[in-house]
Amino acid sequence: MVRAAVLPAVGAPLEITEIDLPDPGPGRVRVRLAAAGVCHSDLSLTNGTMRVPVPAVLGHEGAGTVVAVGEGVTHVAPGAGVVLNWAPSCGSCHACTLGEVWLCANALNGAADVHARRASDGTELHPGLNVAAFAEETVVPAACVLPVPDGVPLIDAALLGCAVLTGYGAVHHSARVLPGETVAVFGVGGVGLATLQSARIAGASRIVAVDVSPEKEELARAAGATDYVVASDTTAREIRALTGKQGVDVAVECVGRAVTIRAAWDSTRRGGRTTVVGIGGKDQQVTFNALELFHWGRTLSGCVYGDSDPAKDLPVLAEHVRAGRLDLGSLVTERIALDGIPAAFENMLAGKGGRALVVF
């Protein structure tokens, strides 16, 4: 038996309870977790913004050590450090054949599987976003584990599984920030902090961080922000004032709210680019009129998992870590145990801190 954080139903509080995991069958891997990040997507599962079968073991950003492997698994072995990949590509759907593995139509099929059983009554549990990282141990398909690159500490490597791949990919794959361009980042949580660091790595000349909390300015500047704006009704105007009234070349929205997406769009120059990373609900309606779409010539695009291919991007990120350009530890503002996850959700809702990290 292992301890895990279980979502019994949408809208219900998490339960920290013991579960029974099966042995890894063919093509599966058992992993002892070293750390798991508390991501806004986990919160979105609890409130129904994102839907998966429940009851479920949550958690999708994690790293750990392989305990056992099933028949046919050859790319990892017991004792190896691995990063969990919550969205493995199938390689055969239309998106995958186009090379857009982040849009794989089958990536979340595993969320409907029976992952484990509650130890107390045998209730079947699903694996949330495929990997059930809010647990001392998990069993996942072999495609959901990637070797931890050399030189990356195992606990820090958990952040590569979502926050860093998403933030880095938003800058380098989706927005394609060029050296000398100006960037605004809306939302200074774990993904926002990774985005700020990635904009600095890309060579952005001015990086404006935006958040509702004045207390996050120090975090933002440490990550690479040259300017800090406390979110208000005049945010876009303030950003334009910082850039000679032109607006930034690129805005990255990491919140998922209609008002923030609109502000990000308004903060860019004519011909500017806005990338939306934040996951919002269906009630968050963003409106534009036809004339402004023509006049401003801006681009608005969604961004799934940073438009990343984890197998290709993890070695690149590791090189940035080894060279000191990417500081994974600085994304973490709180280290907690499993039973600290509900409080971490509350802090997230209140706009406090960066990434909370469950350390086992």
Rg: 20 Å
The biggest sheet amounts to:
7 strands, mixed
Name the structural class: alpha/beta
Order of helices and strands: EEEHEEEHEEEEHHEHEHEHEHEHEHEHE
Task: Report the helical percentage.
Answer: 25-40%
| Termini separation | 15 Å
- Tell me the total number of β-strands: 18
Mean pLDDT: 96
Total of helices = 11
**Strand residue content:** 25-35%
Which of globular, elongated, flat, extended, rod-shaped describes the shape?
Answer: globular
Any low-confidence stretches, pLDDT <50, length ≥5?
none
Describe the overall structure.
This protein is of the alpha/beta class. The chain contains 11 helices and 18 strands. Strands 3, 5, 6, 9, 10, 17 and 18 form a 7-stranded mixed β-sheet that branches. Helix 4 (163-174) packs across helix 5 (190-201).
Would you spell out the secondary-structure blueprint of this structure?
Layout: E1 2-7, E2 15-20, E3 28-38, H1 40-46, E4 56-57, E5 61-69, E6 81-84, H2 94-97, E7 116-118, E8 124-125, E9 137-141, E10 145-147, H3 154-157, H4 163-174, E11 182-186, H5 190-201, E12 206-211, H6 217-223, E13 227-230, H7 235-242, E14 248-253, H8 258-266, E15 268-276, H9 290-296, E16 299-302, H10 310-322, E17 332-336, H11 341-349, E18 355-359
Parallel strand pairs: 11-12, 11-14, 12-13, 14-15, 15-16, 17-18
Antiparallel strand pairs: 1-2, 1-4, 2-7, 3-5, 3-9, 3-18, 5-6, 6-10, 7-8
Helix pairs in contact: 4-5
